[in-house]
Design a protein that fits this description.
Its main location: Golgi. It comes from Xanthoceras sorbifolium. Keywords: Glycosyltransferase, Golgi apparatus, Signal-anchor, Transferase, Transmembrane. This protein is α/β, with parallel strands linked by helices. It has two domains: about 80 residues, no CATH class; about 160 residues, Glycogen Phosphorylase B (Rossmann fold, 3-Layer(aba) Sandwich). It has nine helices and ten strands.
Length: about 270
């Protein structure tokens, strides 16, 4: 059994989840085990990180209205366009942009985002930098990570605890950068400025190869987020050996604490 949750609190909306669906595989974009440790049900060993849903206008061929700019035409070295949310990494980026306004675009969006940028205008700004900075917000992930791939800027992850979709098979070192959140300052811009455009082009090319996995496309598509999720689910069939409520016998049978095989386990409640 699997269940999809759209936010990190996830299964805690179902207060008795630990009794009834504790062995379910949870699908969630938020793999946050730090800020809300008392309210998150996420378990990195069994649950699946799913991509956030990017704007259809960026991903549907017939409506793709945001075209990447050549690297030589991009105004900024890097950008961060988003709410500060009172989070230190985001506040540090805002201050850094004040020191280096010609290199880093980072407006202080302290009020509703729609009042500052219309969605398409936001993407026009997003594409105008070589690097898209992805600091953590209220949780470890942000939709900006996925959006960066469709304007072809290199994501720079500033979220130390982040877990990414399909990370067992995708080598994120080939097309993203992960930088310590404790090292946000001029040294970050100096490092990004030192990277040759040829390396950026290589990283962007790799990113274009995998970005289809962020799109919730139809079944007819050869590559989509759903294909990736189904693959992850297949990998997890009867692979619960690390649970304190899981036991196994000499013949490989996996059982619960009452020695009932999981294949025969019936939850004590009607399921839809």
């Amino acid at each position: 059994m699997y269940k999809s949750w759209k936010i990190g609190a996830g299964a805690h909306f179902f207060t008795s989840w630990e009794t009834f669906i504790n062995r379910s595989i949870f699908l969630t974009p938020e793999a946050d085990r730090t800020d809300r440790i008392s309210s998150t049900a996420f378990n990195t060993w069994k649950d699946i990180i799913i991509p956030g849903n990017v704007n259809d206008n960026m991903t549907t061929d017939g409506a793709f209205r945001v075209h990447p700019l050549p690297l030589s035409m991009r105004k900024y070295l890097a950008n961060y366009l988003g709410h500060a949310q009172g989070k230190l990494p985001r506040l540090q980026l805002i201050e850094l942009a004040k020191q280096y306004p010609d290199k880093l675009e980072c407006p202080d969006l302290t009020y509703d985002f729609a009042n500052k940028f219309e969605k398409m205008e936001y993407f026009q700004h997003l594409r105008n930098a070589k690097f898209c900075l992805v600091p953590r917000g209220l949780s470890s992930w942000t939709l900006r990570f996925y959006e960066a791939f469709f304007v072809e800027c290199v994501p720079v992850i500033l979220s130390d605890q982040i877990e990414l979709p399909f990370q067992n098979v995708i080598d994120y070192t080939q097309f993203t950068i992960k930088w310590p959140a404790t090292q946000i300052g001029p040294q970050l811009l100096e490092y990004l400025e030192s990277i040759p455009d040829d390396d950026l082009k290589r990283m962007i090319a790799h990113g274009k190869e995998v970005r289809c996995l962020w799109v919730y496309g139809p079944e007819s598509e050869p590559c989509s987020a759903m294909h990736g999720i189904l693959w992850e689910l297949q990998r997890r069939v009867r692979r619960f050996q690390q649970s304190a409520e899981t036991f196994w016998l000499h013949d490989g049978t996996v059982v619960n604490r009452n020695l009932i095989p999981f294949d025969n386990w019936i939850p004590p409640m009607p399921l839809p």
